[in-house]
Protein 1
Amino acid sequence: DVKVTQSSRYLVKRTGEKVFLECVQDMDHENMFWYRQDPGLGLRLIYFSYDVKMKEKGDIPEGYSVSREKKERFSLILESASTNQTSMYLCASSLEYNEQFFGPGTRLTVL
Amino acid sequence: KNEVEQSPQNLTAQEGEFITINCSYSVGISALHWLQQHPGGGIVSLFMLSSGKKKHGRLIATINIQEKHSSLHITASHPRDSAVYICAAAANYGGATNKLIFGTGTLLAVQP
């Protein structure tokens, strides 16, 4: 079975802090994605990567950056966390044009 | 107007009932995904379909490409089916992957 893991289930940070969210997948998938999920808005794509060191902006990249130094690992970085970044963050991975496999999510609260 | 619309937003059913969740989309797609999310849990992919119908246990997904419409059916519903069901349209990004455009989900509660 494909396994996608995220570094934390719950995280509380203060405004202005730098936040790292890590995602690791164990099935050699080329594609990895970061989403945020908010009530009434559904899942929205922040960034995705289709190869090591490659990244593409999604629908809401402002305030975020990403890093993919190894194929299995995709990190989401909040350079200076703000309260409007309080959300559920979900990572996913997939092979080309195939179903996406999701991690358990990180619920981030920014105070 | 959202590119992917689901209905209903909330659904309460009695155990054993037949359930239908609808999804309409306005973009060109290569596939349509149905996903399930339990409270506090991660998201699980149920189906990926580009035509016709797929069945897995008590779950059935259909798609009508001409109508740009898909349905998820649950037969003989059970309280453990209670979850959020999410429809997502896979739009071709022109690269080596698809961008998923998500509906806002249908919250299903099946009462015993």
Protein 2
Amino acid sequence: QKEVEQNSGPLSVPEGAIASLNCTYSDRGSQSFFWYRQYSGKSPELIMFIYSNGDKEDGRFTAQLNKASQYVSLLIRDSQPSDSATYLCAVNRDNAGNMLTFGGGTRLMVKP
Amino acid sequence: KAGVTQTPRYLIKTRGQQVTLSCSPISGHRSVSWYQQTPGQGLQFLFEYFSETQRNKGNFPGRFSGRQFSNSRSEMNVSTLELGDSALYLCASSHRDGGELFFGEGSRLTVL
């Protein structure tokens, strides 16, 4: 079992819809959770992070964390074709500096 | 503020050779991490340096090594290259612990 699991996709949604990306993790010592976006041929960029159970909203993005279920999700509202990218879930243990464990990523395609 | 700069961007080596990759972090960032990205294994953590000290190390063989200089610039070295070392090597810097990383564009290594 991989430490961080994501459905590889592609996840295809129509423009304007809500895209829901999911991630599960196995290490109960994980304390910080991140969503990075990677466009084809580019490097990852951080779009959201969440540390506490519940929801965290930033513009069209909402990150959701449920530590009991070891589950993290990212919702993208009003999806745009420019959101088409691979979304990488990453986790960090406490006192682990900046050592992240990444999932394999979910490819999102937003169709006009 | 300039971003993370990695050199060289592309390089081709043959099996058995060694390679050195360079990374200049964002000004003021003292943490530098290195990741390997391949289609099969995704993003995998190599090591992290903070104030010239290796703080964390991933599960890679000893052929992979790195260092950090007093100006926070970092280098990684791979000796005795193998075909499987072909990958995108990403450097990321951060101003704090916890996983909020800023990635460079990467160095794409091809081993023939």
